[in-house]
Amino acid sequence: MTARSTCPYCGVGCGVLLRADGQGGLDVQGDPDHPANFGRLCSKGSALGETVGLEQRLLVPRVNGRETGWDDALQRVADRFAGTIAKDGPDSVAFYVSGQLLTEDYYVANKLMKGFIGSANIDTNSRLCMASSVAGHKRAFGTDTVPGTYEDLDAADLVVLVGSNLAWCHPVLYQRLLAARKARGTRIVVIDPRRTASCDGADMHLALAPGSDVALFNRLFAEICERGALDDAYLSHCNGFDETLDAARNDDMSATGLSDAQIAAFCRLWIGTERVVTIFSQGVNQSTSGSDKVNAILNCHLATGRIGKPGCGPLSVTGQPNAMGGREVGGLANTLACHLDLENADHRAAVRDFWGAPSVPDGPGLKAVDMFRAVGRGRVRALWIIHTNPAVSMPEADAVRDAIAACPFTVVSDITDRTDTARLADVLLPATAWAEKDGTVTNSDRTISRQRKVLPAPGQARPDWEILADVGRRMGFGAVFDYDGPAAIFREHAALSGIAGRFGRDFDISGLSRLTDAAYDAFEPRRWPIAQGRSGGRFFADGAFFHPDGKARLLPVKWKPPAARTEPRYPFRLNTGRLRDQWHTMTRTALSPRLSAHMAEPFLELHPADAGRLGIASADLVRVTSAVGAAILRARITDAVRPGQVFAPMHWTGETAPSARIDALVAAATDPLSGQPESKAGVVAVARYAAAWYGFAVSRDAMTPGADYWALARTRSGYRAELAGSAPVRDWEAEARRLFGRPNAEVASLLDAKQGTARIVLHEGRVLAGALYVSSQPVAVKRDYLATLPGTEAAGAFTGRPPADMPNPGPVLCSCFGIGINTIVQAVEDQGLMSVDAIGAALGAGTNCGSCRPEIAELLQGIRTREAAE
Ligand SMILES: Nc1nc2c(c(=O)[nH]1)N[C@H]1C(S)=C(S)[C@@H](COP(=O)(O)OP(=O)(O)OC[C@H]3O[C@@H](n4cnc5c(=O)[nH]c(N)nc54)[C@H](O)[C@@H]3O)O[C@H]1N2
Ligand SMILES: Nc1nc2c(c(=O)[nH]1)N[C@H]1C(S)=C(S)[C@@H](COP(=O)(O)OP(=O)(O)OC[C@H]3O[C@@H](n4cnc5c(=O)[nH]c(N)nc54)[C@H](O)[C@@H]3O)O[C@H]1N2
Ligand code: SF4
Ligand SMILES: [Mo]
Description:
- This protein has 28 helices and 36 strands.
- By secondary structure, the chain is of the alpha/beta class.
- The strands form nine sheets. It has a seven-stranded mixed sheet with strand order 5-4-16-15-14-6-7, with helices on both faces. Strands 23-27-24-26-25-28 form a six-stranded mixed barrel. The protein has a six-stranded antiparallel sheet with strand order 30-31-29-34-33-32.
- α2 crosses α19 (464-477), α3 runs parallel beside α19 and α16 crosses α18 (397-406).
- The termini are far apart.
- Bound molecules: ligand MGD (2 copies), iron/sulfur cluster and molybdenum atom.
């Protein structure tokens, strides 16, 4: 049987067709009828089937590391929370939750904390993600409303990506944009300090100075006025024009570091194109001027009336699959429920009465950064972390890790015990994973879709909503947490939104408040609002806004630099972000050999001029330090970053590369309005890491590296690891036996103490169990070939190279079909292929999800340039 469900990764919210094979396996295809993707999936969605295995799953509740039953575990949670509240008041406890929770889970968590515990100390990883967009939307529109839809991308003539690497982070939307470009010549502008895969299809890339977006959009605003491009009729629906123009004219566009000609060209294009969509994401939100950046963008759309009409508007793309749903239920510490306001006494009273709750807090609770600081200071003494991994993903991650460890009582709900956060839990609760539970999510364009259960709950795992409701009942809050399933929770949420609708709020899905269980099961994707008299569509074409006077607000904003200044001690600006084939802290994507092949190791991108000056060569390791922490990463020398700027991915953790936890380096400076941390503009020092030795290992089974630097990745035949250390190792054979956990395997080794090289191959029977290659320089072996050998009888392990007659595909570029760079280069040279499409036709590469097409294009460009030079 095939079930229609939703991909559990990014906020595009692609529909998937799931078929369980009855043996724990899952076949995953794109849903041709889902309006977000029409059948397309990216590399991560396509590889979902590789991530549903149970080997790393948490299956039984644990208290202080010992397995126990649900009754014991949840009674302890309830008693400890109740006891702490009785002694120190409701604000001595906190929940830290996630934009990956389903709406039903999120609703129950918010109701429990804000309605019944009586504190607003519930915050979410959306604080690190969407908080600045929420704040910016509310300031401009009066509510947190995303005006447009995905269809606008099909109808736009210009799409501007601001701080968004859409090609890697919302790949299916990016493919949709490229399709529109092919059909109607849509122009694309990328505004990002760094050259990304999204620049490949772009007409213009503005590599502005980090944090300077406000100055650029202020210039655009001033130009809009000077060139007479204002929409005067629409402006009658907006307040604040004069102050905004004044601020825009007086801002300093030189802060952008862009030339006058570049800025003029951008303004000409934007102003001259009526149908313009401005997509923004973390390069905007994760900044100490994040909210101002959002408003600077919204100002330009409002002043031109380019909002709410087909093909125009600002579009904040959400990161997580239910980041939008979390905003709807009011899961942030400063929001209520259904887009109602915590500060509004009428709103509070209405929600309190609806819930039958004793009281609702009248002010905001602790936002994420402050929450973990309060934990560290002992002010929050019972903490429940659900569906997120803050010991890795919060800024000042070492301090956050220490605070969680020191908290008198920490509960963690996760699907695995192998996370930096789960390892710190006093009570660890096994949750069902996405394919094992029912509920709803809302994507970036307000479309609500069902997630459907197709696999049985493994072990004792339970859905998050059920765990939360059980604790609510055990804390004595009774029948209001007696739900017989997610449909009942959804109906309650929809009914509450009807009250919000009566207060004139945007989020109203009261049309679903009487959905039967059967209708909930059969629910088709639908965009909100869903209420009498209002259904789906866009907001604001009519000029009706949600401030008390019904008007929008233009906000005077002024550029300000990032909180940390570069200085002689910390001369580099550290930018961080995402890779195409990993999801956040890798608890799911790192299980997939296909996805792990794309970039198997954490790295730091730095400019060739900086590398030269610091004596850093390609493949060296570098030590990166900031005022709050340190990391060791592989150097990737590239002119994709500007001199003085470095970039590192956020994904690696204590489980996969403990010295590469990038948030250990990031200081917790926050936007004063939104509380969102500046994750993209820290300052650091970079130096060559003086390794005494470098190692590369492949293994059939998991390895336990203990080196100063290590990074572990999955392969089809087992695992691979990069290693390095600053202290010499005396006995490499003993080290290899320990690494591979095989004290009795047969060992063949080739050691050269003078050269500092070692090759050690372990066999069991005739089968290769593991091989370790050591050198005083970065190890030069054919990694992709060696990674195929464990578990086979192949003899090539000792030389580190494939036999001459064996093809070596090289590093994987197309994850969907596992096609390596060498295969593509060979085909280009042998068959004279001249385009990405021709390569696709010949090899299949790039024809499934399309996520690798920008990289294929870059490779092709490289080959052509090389040929031209020869
Ligand atoms: N593959 C993959 N996709 C994902 C995720 C994932 O983990 N992996 N996570 C999802 C989530 S939760 C999120 S929030 C989204 C994030 O999606 P994006 O926001 O697109 O991703 P990031 O890589 O975090 O950052 C985007 C870009 O901001 C740029 N940037 C840095 N500083 C500035 C600046 O001052 N101004 C401007 N204009 N740009 C700047 C960075 O160079 C980077 O290229 O991705 C979602 N999709
Ligand atoms: N430096 C830097 N730091 C960043 C960012 C950045 O760009 N740069 N981006 C920030 C952003 S935008 C985000 S969204 C965060 C993301 O950061 P996190 O939310 O910390 O990262 P995830 O790996 O998505 O964590 C999800 C956890 O939930 C678990 N899980 C999976 N399914 C379930 C389930 O059904 N139930 C439960 N209970 N648990 C489950 C997973 O195993 C995993 O441990 O990182 C932020 N941190
Ligand atoms: S774009 Fe990829 S990760 Fe995002 S929802 Fe679609 S398939 Fe999933
Ligand atoms: Mo995010």
